[in-house]
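Moderator note: this is an archived Q&A kept for reference. The question asked for a predicted structure of one protein chain; the sequence and the answer are reproduced below.
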Amino acid sequence: MAYKKPSQKFSGRIREITVGSGLKIGGEAVLPFYSFDGDTGERPAIGMEIWDIYPDSWPAGLKNIFKEHADDPVKWAKFCVEKYNPDFICIRFEGANPEAQDRTPEECAEIAKKLADEVAVPLVIAGCESNEKNAGIFTKVAEALPNKNYVFLSAVESNYKEVGAAVGLAYGNIVAAESSVDLNLAKQLNILLTQLGVKPERIVMNPGISAVGYGFEYVVTTFDRIRLAALDQNDSTLQMPIVSPVSFETWKVKESVATEEDAPEWGSQEDRGIAMEISTAVGVLAAGANAIILRHPRSVEVIRKFINELA
C-alpha cells in the first residue's frame, strides 16, 4: 500500500492585509512555513528600522554602516532601500521623546510626509517611549498621510481610542494593537478596537517581544497559542497578521550593549548584537510573525535567506 503523507487542515485563516500600495502580509491557513500542509499565504516581510534623529546610542559598528546617511531620515531610508532592499521602512520617532529633543507631533508629521513622498517602499510609523506622546504623534502623522495603508506601531490599552479613531477610522491607515505577551490581552485589545469601529482589515497585532534569553520562551508560546486559536478554533478576533519589532528589544540587552572593553571575553560587540537579532527573528518567524523589523544589514541578509529557504 502506497504511503500517503498526512496533512493538518484548519478551519481558520489569517487575514491578508495590504501595507502601502502593494505589500501583502498574512493570508496563511497553516502553521508557519508548513507548506506541506496547505497555503502558507504571503512570505514574511522584512523591514529596517531608522530614527528621526542620529542614533548616538547605537553601537559604533552599527552606526558606521550608515555613517552620514543617519543625519537625515530621508537619506537614511533611501540608503537602506537602495542597498539592502527591505520590504518596508520603520521610522521610529525617538526624537519626540520628552527626555530627548521633545520633538512635536507636527514636526514628526513633516518628517513622515517627506519620507512618504521620497521613499519607494511602505512605512511603519513607530513612536517614542511615551504612550501619551505617541497618541498625539500618531494622530498628526496619520492626518499628514491619509489613506496610505501604513502601519502605526502601536496602539496600547492606554491610548487605543485616540490612536484607533485617528489612524484606523479618520485617516485610513492600519493600527497595530500592542499587548504584553498574553493571548487574552491581545484578543481584548483587538475586540476593543473593532468595537471602536476599526475594521479588522485595518488591524495588525504586536503581541509583545523580548530578546532571546529574556523570557523569550513565553513570547514564542504566546505566538503559538494565538496562531492555534486563530487557525484551529477559527477565532476571528485573533486572525490579524503579526508585526514584530525585533530590533527594538535585541539591541538594548546587555549582550548587545556591553562594549568589548567592558566584556572582552564576549568578543565583538557588533557580532553579539547581530546574533541576538537573528536568533530572536528566527524564533518569532517560526512562531507566526508575518513581518519583522531589523536594524543590521547582516541580519536582513541572513533572515531573508532563512525565509527563502523555508517559504
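Archived answer notes: DSSP finds eleven helices and ten strands in the chain.
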